[in-house]
Amino acid sequence: MEALKRKIDTLQADFDASWAQIGVNQKISELHTQEKQLENPDIWKDNEEAQKIAKNASVNQNFVQPWQELQKKIMEIKDLINLSDNELSTEIEQQITEVQSEYDNLKKQLLFQGKYDNHSAILRLSAGVGGDDAQDFTQMLERMYLRWAENSGYQATVIERSPGENAGVKTSVIEVDGPFAYGKLQSENGVHRLVRLSPFNAESRETSFALVEVLPKIDTENEVKIDEKDLKIDVYRSGGHGGQSVNTTDSAVRITHIPTGITVAIQNERSQLQNREKALEILRSKLAQLQLEQHVDDINALRAGKSADWGSQIRNYVLHPYKLVKDTRTKYEEKDVNSVLDGKIDGFIGSYLEHTVLSN
Fold it and tell me: pLDDT digit string (tens) for 141-179?
């Protein structure tokens, strides 16, 4: 029994260190504050603000719950050791092994040490060279990320979408809400390339491209402060081809950040004010990503440019003449292309994280 006691004490010490390093107490404090806010009936007078707080509370709850449950299991095993004799040693050892496995999986979160790694994420998908094939490929990627989010327990919402004239989508903007969504999805940032027999061009072999931008979701103005004088805001009539709802008022909003030239346009929200707020949220996220890329702390020090640009691809999806998905940075590959396109991209995410950590 003494050996088991030493084993669980070591696990407890490691667990406590990880708990502190990842800031679980801070998240618990934030959650308690949010729960108290939601208990106040007055908060629901501003339904949009209340929904925002509820959403953030849900994200914090999903973050802290696994750590709290594991903490409880460790304490139960310690109590069991103190109250038991050697007859239960085999059962206790099995419980320690299971809890150790849970902890090993949970502490992977410690790989996420970037400034915004614990944030939710915004994905912006854009069709590139390849006509209908590229737009169809972009829609395939859209589905892939939505399925990945669903399978990973994240909440994913398409907040802006521009359908192609004949097939697929030209652009799609997806919010992925949950702990470490940005930390995980940053592996997807860049150009993706598809090689296949085209369903649009008499079964000829075609190569098409799509750009994936991954941005940390910035919910609060204080995280990324923007000077109003640096903004050019245009209002125009929303709607258009592809089944978009058409408003009879000028509710769509386009915001340009003059110093960097970054432009964000949103038209899918219900009002001009909501479109403006969503556009500002995405602009803050784009500026945060640009700060990371250019290694600057002050927005005023940013150079003109944009997050994720066209260049050499980060991943190849080959459906013909053979089947293979391969990351050009880590050399990680999967032969089951259908599973990858169905959202099973954790292997690529994990290999990128390990590659990034080892190279730093």
Answer: 999 999 999 999 899 999 999 999 999 999 999 999 988
- In this structure, the answer to whether residues 355 and 331 fall within a common structural domain is yes
Are 251 and 348 part of one and the same domain?
Answer: no
CA 261 – CA 291 distance, rounded (Å): 14
Domain match, 211 and 135 both: yes
- CA distance linking residue 217 with residue 219, whole number of Å: 6
Tell me the CATH number at 82.
1.20.58.410
Place of tokens 């259908």: 338
C-alpha separations of 93 from 5, 41, 81, 155 in Å:
10, 49, 10, 37
Taking alpha carbons only, the member of 255, 222, 249 closest to residue 237 is: 249
Q: Report, in this order, helix, strand and coil percent for the chain, each rounded to 5.
A: 50, 20, 30
What domain range includes position 285?
228-301
Q: Which of 97-111, 113-127, 237-251 has the lowest mean pLDDT?
A: 237-251
List the beta strands (DSSP E) in the chain: 121-127, 155-163, 169-177, 190-197, 205-216, 231-236, 252-257, 262-266, 313-318, 324-327, 333-334
Q: Give me the torsion for CA of 17, 23, 24, 25, rounded to 10°.
A: 100
Q: Residue 25: name the closest of 68, 57, 59 by CA.
A: 68
My answer on whether 297 and 326 are in the same domain is no
Tokens describing residue 109: 């979160």
Residue recorded with tokens 């007078």: 45
| Alpha-carbon separation of residue 129 from 3, 197, 322, 343 (angstroms) | 62, 16, 22, 24
> Encoding tokens for residue 122?
């915004």
Cα–Cα distance, 230 to 254 (Å, whole number):
14
Whether the Cβ atoms of residue 195 and residue 320 lie closer than 8 Å to each other: yes
Q: Are residues 126 and 273 in the same domain?
A: no
Q: What is the pTM of this model?
A: 0.77
List, in sequence order, every residue forming a beta bridge with 253; answer none if it has no partner: 235, 266
